[in-house]
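Field reference: "sequence" (input) and "structure" (output). Example, Putative glutathione S-transferase theta-2:
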Amino acid sequence: PAIMDGRFKLSESHAILRYLACAFPRIADHWYPADLYKRAKVESVMDWHRTTFPRGPGSYAFYSVLAPAVGLPLNTKAAARTEKNFIASLATIESVWLQKKGRFLLGSNQPSIADLSLACEIMQLEVLDEKDQERILGPFKRVQKWLDDTKNAMAPHFEEV
């Protein structure tokens, strides 16, 4: 993705989210906290996301469903490898990033840009049929609830985008 704000051009989703959160002073602090410690925690989730999910849900969806749309064959071996990796990541989200005290990542009661980014990544699974979505996400009830909470926290704009 890329944006242009006046003459300023910027690419990369996480850089764009950080820029928008800082460039517009009326953006609520929970999105990208001014407090150094809270911001560092949001940054840690975003860095984990980038290093853990590059071959995550989007790659699985590509290898298992979307490849023929660009003239490539389905790749079941790559899909299986990718699925194994991101299922482990979903387990990490449940055990590490979704703490019991809050509805959002890091135990927060309000979403951050890390919630938005990671939720959008996982939602790439929506191109799969319902049976496959349930097989993959079914064991992760806390992740499912967090996805719903994240969507609802940004309603109606989340579905619009």
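The chain has a mean pLDDT of 93.
The helical segments are 13-23, 36-52, 57-66, 76-97, 113-122, 130-137, 141-153, 157-160.
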